Amino acid sequence: MKILFVDDEKDVEALFRQKFRKEIKSGEIELAFAFSGKDALNILGEENPPKFVYVFSDINMPGMSGLELLEEIKTRFPNIQVSMISAYGDSENYDRAMSSGAKGFFTKPVDFERLKKEIAEMVKNQ
Amino acid sequence: MILINIISLFLLYYLKKSSGPEGFPVHLNRYFNYGMVASGIFIVLGATQLPPEFLFELLSFALVGAIIYLILNTPELEYQKTLAITPLPIIGVQLLEYLIETISPSIYDILENYLDAAGFFALIWAVTMWLNHRKQMKELEIERIFLKEQERQLKATAEQKNQLEALVAERTSEILKQKEELQKALNHLQSTQSQLIQQEKLASLGQLTAGIAHEIKNPLNFVNNFSELSVDFLEEIGEEMAKISDSPEKENILELLEDVKSNLVKIRHHGSRADSIVRSMLMHSRGGTGSMEPTDLNALIREYANLAFHGMRANPKPINVDIKLDFDEKLPQIKLNGEDFSRVILNLVKNSFDAMRDKISALGNEYKAKVEIRTKDLGDQILIEVEDNGPGVPDEIRDKLLMPFFTTKKGTEGTGLGLSITHDIIKSHEGKLEIESKVGEFTRFSILLPKIKSTEKSS
């Protein structure tokens, strides 16, 4: 199962790859990383239809924001699930994300247990 | 001779009438009345020719003489002097005629014509004098009226002056009162202004704080996450190492890994400390979340004061504190953000405990620590007081108490955010936080909460 993480912080890649080391090793999931909204759309557009099942995106990013990316993905690739990960867990961001079709909303610092559970469920349903 | 008496009667009558509004003294009026009666009797007697003519004439002269004497010698009749002179020639001629006739009738016969002529001139004189007198009297009367008018005007002016003075005094006192009110309003305005400036400073500091917190949060998350991960990996390494046969090198590696692990645990520990500070800082920007629900304030205070107490007892360095709750049991429910407001109670009570702990270590068992929490219904507002008998707050730091990161606590005990957040929460409830203190005796935090908030009033 291919999952794309979108965050302008490059160290996110190392962190997530280490956190999901076992799952990646076992071939359960495959991770890809994009560092901007535009980057993410390029990666998703490489294949048609894209093999990605799930996208996790930060909200506050330079250029295209995570919420804009969410809307874009939902129009272009309605089958891909999108969840937001943000340091700003205020109701305004939450409401906008949910009404734009986000599957979930995670606040930073990320609760990895919850994230792992979410991904495990996704894998099981495949 | 009747002429003399008629003159007497006329004079008396005229005098009596001329008395004017003030009137004459009683004795003068009495004289006039007696004189008039006497002259009347004399006229009747003269007409009947009853008494001896000699006596009658003498009496008549005496009467008229007395009247003239009265006019000339009474101060009240001073202005009638010309009246006394008017009949004088007539009386003189009559008197002369009378004397001559009495003493020597023969000479009288010779002089009769001259005497008649003299009588005639005397009459003309009298008439002239009379008219003159009348004119004078009229002038006097006019002058009197004029004077009276002047006096009246003066009186009116004086009265007006008094009225104006009273009015001026009244206005002056009104202006003074207004001035005082304005002064009071100005003072109020100035103190409000300085409060606003202070609050504005605090608010901008709060925003800055929140901004900084956000910026720190992301790198801090990495520190925490990577250190946590590394600890996990070290455990995995430990598991793998067990499979390798023992050697001195392996022992050395294991020792070093143990050190690295303990270092990572320290990084993680201090990272989470920083994280809790950052989270407190973020409380500042958390305006408007959480809803205001009608809350039983007494119950909330009781619960959280209790929680603070047990939390303190369970933590290192517990102290003995007497907590006294003095609640207004008739307190109505008030709209509060319970989650936020419970922090206010926790912070204030915890602050008291920390302050009193210092006093206990300074004074020993002599000192009995006490916290008193009071609620009171003030009508439009509700008053909450948290008072301790701790060391008190010196004046020079009282203003700084509400500033973020200001702390009197040593080392890592306080973040300096507790009271700053408390103040923010109270402000978001449109309340006021006041601090009173006397060094060595007490510190009292007073919270004033409006029962109805302005946002509710307008809707």
From TrEMBL, chain A:
PROSITE patterns documented for this protein: RESPONSE_REGULATORY (PS50110)
Q: Does the keyword Cell membrane apply?
A: no
Q: Does the keyword Transcription apply?
A: no
Location of 4-aspartylphosphate modifications: D58
Domain (Response regulatory): give its ranges. 2-123
Task: Give the top-rank taxon of the lineage listed in the UniProt record for this protein.
Answer: Bacteria
- Keywords, sorted A to Z: Phosphoprotein
- Name its GO BP terms in alphabetical order: phosphorelay signal transduction system
Query: Do you know which SMART domains this protein is assigned to?
Result: REC (SM00448)
Q: What PANTHER family does this protein map onto?
A: RESPONSE REGULATORY DOMAIN-CONTAINING PROTEIN (PTHR44591:SF3), STRESS RESPONSE REGULATOR PROTEIN 1 (PTHR44591)
Q: What is this protein called?
A: Response regulator receiver domain-containing protein
UniProtKB/TrEMBL annotation, chain B:
- Gene3D superfamilies cross-referenced by the UniProt entry: 1.10.287.130, Histidine kinase-like ATPase, C-terminal domain
Keywords noted in UniProt: Coiled coil, Kinase, Phosphoprotein, Transferase
Which segments constitute the Histidine kinase domain? 211-453
- The residues forming a coiled coil are 137-199
What PROSITE patterns does its record include?
HIS_KIN
Top EC class of this enzyme: transferase
EC numbers listed for it are 2.7.13.3
What PANTHER family does UniProt report for this protein, alphabetically? SENSOR HISTIDINE KINASE, TWO-COMPONENT SENSOR PPRA
Know the name of this protein?
Answer: histidine kinase
Give the species: Algoriphagus boritolerans DSM 17298 = JCM 18970
